[in-house]
Amino acid sequence: MIIGRVIGTIVSTVKDPKYKGYKLLVVQEMNIDGGYEKNSHISIDLIGAGLDEVVMVVSGAACRSSLETNDKGIDSLITAKIEKIVIGDKQIDL
Amino acid sequence: MIIGRVIGTIVSTVKDPKYKGYKLLVVQEMNIDGGYEKNSHISIDLIGAGLDEVVMVVSGAACRSSLETNDKGIDSLITAKIEKIVIGDKQIDL
Amino acid sequence: MIIGRVIGTIVSTVKDPKYKGYKLLVVQEMNIDGGYEKNSHISIDLIGAGLDEVVMVVSGAACRSSLETNDKGIDSLITAKIEKIVIGDKQIDL
Amino acid sequence: MIIGRVIGTIVSTVKDPKYKGYKLLVVQEMNIDGGYEKNSHISIDLIGAGLDEVVMVVSGAACRSSLETNDKGIDSLITAKIEKIVIGDKQIDL
Amino acid sequence: MIIGRVIGTIVSTVKDPKYKGYKLLVVQEMNIDGGYEKNSHISIDLIGAGLDEVVMVVSGAACRSSLETNDKGIDSLITAKIEKIVIGDKQIDL
Fold first, then answer.
1. What pTM does this model have?
2. Structural domains in chain E (count)
3. Chain D within 8 Å of E23 (Cβ-Cβ)?
4. Interval C16-51: pLDDT, tens
5. Domain that residue D7 falls in
6. Looking at chain A, which residue has its C-alpha nearest residue D78?
């Protein structure tokens, strides 16, 4: 899984009806220094993540791991809010 | 999922018969500044996307998420038109 | 799916017997300018592609989309010959 | 599978309940010189890996290979501790 | 599938018991000039590959393509020895 920050949202009215009721969040990949990678993704939110929050993102077939998300056409899923990242004995500022 | 723009089409007469009836669109990956990445893919269109439209593209096993697309030999699928991308409090020009 | 050109073949006598009867082609990834990427793959050919032809290549789990290819240990499959790539109103020379 | 070193942990209280009871470890990819790649991932630990240990990490659908991990929303899994890496006739310092 | 050379082995005593009886080989990705890419992986060997041999490596879900490898937690599998790579009308030295 990767670490990312929720930086925005997507507005879409013409879409596969399977996405109905899900928020489409833009997540930017973070590295362990607290800096940002260039990569960003659209992820579906399972746990109520809000703007600017640091989250854990699952990719690929693992997104189909529940009845709720199975067969929904999802390849990126927010499954946890990250409160702390501890590298060695240092805590990263989030 | 990633953000891309439909920039072209592919013409193919000799192909796996499972693709029959689907448009094969060339999609170029976009970043959240509205700029373009070098990567482009051929995607199957599920929602009537047209040239120059900004779309959401699903990759990998998640493309098999419906009866229509299951077992069709598809690893990239356009599942939504994107009307707006909002990053923080700024709307990206599309 | 990606665009590639068939640039060569692989000779292998010691191999998983499931590959028996399939050609193992070397495909180099093409970009939409008609130039080449550094990446190349070995792909199984489903549609009779020949040397120098431009093809569409499917990756990952989608390669298991038919009785013929299911459970064959294949992660890259040529499923179409590409006759034309049209980007905007320009046709790319192939 | 890739080689990585366990460099830290993630603290998360708001998360998919399926992760309950699993440690979420931060693993940094290692290359065969013993140096580090920029990439890091969050991995679930199956074998009791500790901080600073060198491990083997499995990615993608292969993480669902046991009753324990099937349908757990996991795309990265630590499945072995690496005691030695031998390249040619040289042993890499770990 | 990709082309690689077997450059070493991994020693691991604490590991998922599913790997028991399999060799864990370090494979370095080769390009079609016969040069090497930076990427290396740990692969399970199905066909008796030895040190310095050039092999074909299958990645991802396709590794689960036999009773032997299904549900073994494997994302990289050596499935063929490569004796010759022919690019156009030139044979690559291996």
1. 0.93
2. 1
3. no
4. 998 988 899 999 999 888 788 878 999 999 899 999
5. 2-92
6. A1
Q: What amino acid occupies position B91? A: Q
Give the 3-state secondary structure of chain B. Answer: CEEEEEEEEEECCCECHHHCCCCEEEEEEECCCCCEEEEEEEEEECCCCCCCCEEEEEEHHHHHCCCCCCCCCCCEEEEEECCEEEECCEEECC
pLDDT of C4 over the 90 cut: yes
Shortest Cα–Cα distance, D22 to chain E (Å): 16
User: Is the predicted pLDDT of residue C67 greater than 60, yes or no?
Assistant: no
Q: Are the CB atoms for A47 and A78 separated by under 8 Å?
A: yes
Does the beta-carbon distance from B56 to A18 stay under 8 Å?
no
What residues contact A25, with CB distance under 8 A and at least 6 apart? A6, A8, A9, A10, A42, A43, A44, A45, A49, A78
- Owner of token pair 């699952």: A58
**pLDDT score of B67:** 57
Give the model confidence (pLDDT) of E43-88 as tens digits: 999 899 999 999 999 998 888 766 566 677 899 999 999 999 999 9
CATH of the domain at C20: 2.40.50.220
Instruction: Give the one of A61, A65, A82 whose C-beta lies nearest to D12's C-beta.
Output: A82
CA–CA distance, D62 with C60 (Å, rounded to integer): 13
List D residues 35-94 in contact with E (Cβ-Cβ < 8 A).
46-48, 56, 58-63, 65-66, 77, 79-88
Confidence of residue A36 (pLDDT cuts 50, 70, 90): confident
* Among the listed residues D11, A79, A12, the one whose alpha carbon sits nearest the alpha carbon of residue B86: A12
